[in-house]
């Protein structure tokens, strides 16, 4: 943490907001003692909260941060209501748009700011056709290795080989698999949060998405399929998501029964 003494007003906001509580005021200027440097998780709260842009941390200059604007809650509500599982696609997503999505998804939180996620993207109809072929053939060849409770997925694979119906990949032009270093505190949760961000933000750009439980099953039941995608051995798989330019537009939201919510103002028992 480097603090510009000409800009710092000594307001102490960075001290109050530091999650690991290692920023201390010294002669009116906040800082981290060298012996506490290792405890800094580089979450950049100190950089983000400073009203005068006095804080640089982990080599990140405040001038390079995007300015924040007020969030329109109605727009966010609409994004949540409008997101649906899309299973009809109208084309591939161009690389520039995909990079825009990934730049935003990269802001998803990870436990202790580990930021150890990998997004493996199979891109384009040709690559997806190869993935579909390998997946369906492997499911049929190795059907005996699939858990009894998941045998139905073999029938879905047969549907493709016999009738050309793609029940696993839904003819999507892309799939993303998120994985995270196994040694991290919450690898699966970190991955699924990032994929949720992907889901919501992508849909706001006209990209249809569907959580792909079926390919997730394939990755877990036939682990050799991980190597088709080059997923490192020391990574835990979070989940998979199909995506592509959306081929559908919904006119209205779904109607769900109320969520089971319990608000406790004291503990039970
Ligand atoms: C963890 C998870 C796994 C899913 N797996 C699949 C899948 O393999 N194939 C599919 O077509 N839809 C899959 N879905 C989509 C659900 O069927 C869908 O979210 C649900 O029907 C609600 O519809 P909505 O997403 O349009 O609101 C999955 C959803 C979740 C959350």
Topology:
Elements: E1 2-3, H1 13-17, E2 23-26, E3 29-32, H2 45-49, E4 55-56, H3 73-82, E5 89-91, H4 95-105, E6 117-123, H5 125-141, H6 152-163, E7 174-181, H7 187-204, E8 207-211, H8 213-221, H9 225-228, E9 235-246
Antiparallel strand pairs: 1-4, 2-3, 5-9, 6-7, 7-9, 8-9
Helix pairs in contact: 4-7, 5-6
Structure characterization notes:
There is one protein chain. This protein has 269 residues and is α+β, with helices and mostly antiparallel strands. It has 2 domains: 2-64, 2-Layer Sandwich (Alpha-Beta Plaits); 73-246, NADH Oxidase. Helices cover 34% and strands 17% of the residues. It contains 9 helices and 9 strands. The chain has helices spanning 13-17, 45-49, 73-82, 95-105, 125-141, 152-163, 187-204, 213-221, 225-228; strands spanning 2-3, 23-26, 29-32, 55-56, 89-91, 117-123, 174-181, 207-211, 235-246. Strands 5, 6, 7, 8 and 9 form a 5-stranded antiparallel beta sheet that branches. Strands 1-4 form a two-stranded antiparallel ribbon. Strands 2-3 form a two-stranded antiparallel sheet. Strand 2 and strand 3 (29-32) form a beta hairpin. The longest helix has 18 residues, at 187-204. The protein is elongated. Bound molecules: flavin mononucleotide.
